[in-house]
Design brief:
Mean pLDDT: 92
Radius of gyration: 18 Å
Number of strands: 10
Low-confidence stretches: none
Order of helices and strands: EEEHEEHEHHHHEHEHEEH
Distance between the termini: 32 Å
Helix content: 25-40%
Strand content: 25-35%
Largest sheet: 6 strands, mixed
Strand order of the largest sheet: 6-7-8-3-9-10
CATH superfamily: P-loop containing nucleotide triphosphate hydrolases
Number of domains: 1
Number of helices: 9
CATH topology: Rossmann fold
Shape: globular
């Protein structure tokens, strides 16, 4: 497999009073095409900062991020926005759906933003509706959906442009156990069956156990890499055991 995401010596500092706080301290990693990886850490560990840098939502203080052969840190803001739109899909904890748009319009939003019509992409959008089990609710508004259904819409929207990589930031954090499992199953299926590359940021070992590899982050540094391998049994025992060895 080929490497589709690279981070080289990422450092991120934020101003704090008259000084600075170092959120990331020289993190390097790579993700291969079609891999499911998780970035795991407690609150304040730097994992969400990592996701923002890996997805081009923010720039590192130093270091480099390369997505699908494109170095984000060499681009100006407009070029970075266009690259991010073309090569990444995001799934966030709070869905970020447009309340005035229907389910089908929310899924097609990346195309609508680019000035394209829904009709031009209707077969593809219909296939995504079927994938996430929402064909019967295509014309509902977000407020007519459960939290789990809203997250399914957000996932379908992220998949719409067939991006190089999906970045999911605590996508089950606002869901109950059963609904969260359904979302994790959909993410894993899109990786295992469709070959979609997934980077999942989470504090939850149960969620991280879906990944092929888990990067454990603490205090802005990469503490360990746990290789779980691709498997349909997502039991978290082996990962929890390793985390216990690390004192987490």
């Amino acid at each position: 497999m080929s490497v589709i995401l690279e981070a080289h010596d990422l450092v991120k500092r934020y101003p704090l009073g008259e000084g600075e706080v170092e959120a990331l301290r020289g993190i390097s990693l790579s993700v291969e095409k079609g891999e499911f990886v998780a970035i795991m850490g407690s609150s304040g560990s730097g994992k969400s900062t990592m996701l923002q840098l890996l997805g081009g939502l923010d720039l590192p203080t130093s270091g480099e991020v390369v997505i699908d052969g494109v170095s984000l840190t060499t681009l100006d803001e407009e070029q970075r926005t266009l690259t991010r739109r073309a090569k990444t899909g995001f799934v966030f904890q709070y869905f970020n759906l447009i309340p005035l748009l229907s389910v089908i319009e929310n899924i097609a939003l990346p195309f609508l933003i680019s000035g394209e019509s829904l009709a031009a992409h209707r077969p593809h959008v219909d296939a995504l509706l079927d994938l996430v089990g929402l064909t019967a609710k295509a014309h509902n508004s977000p407020d007519q959906l459960s939290a789990g259904e809203q997250q399914r819409v957000a996932l379908a929207r992220a998949l719409a442009t067939e991006p190089a990589i999906i970045l999911a930031d605590e996508p089950t954090g606002n869901l109950d156990y059963t609904t969260g499992t359904e979302i994790l199953d959909l993410l894993w299926d899109s990786c295992d069956r469709l070959g979609q590359t997934i980077v999942l940021v989470t504090h939850d070992a149960r969620a991280a156990a879906y990944a092929d590899r888990v990067f454990v982050v603490r205090d802005g540094a990469l503490l360990d890499e746990v290789d779980l391998g691709r498997r349909s049994d997502h039991q978290a025992g082996a990962l929890i055991g390793r985390l216990a060895e690390l004192g987490l």
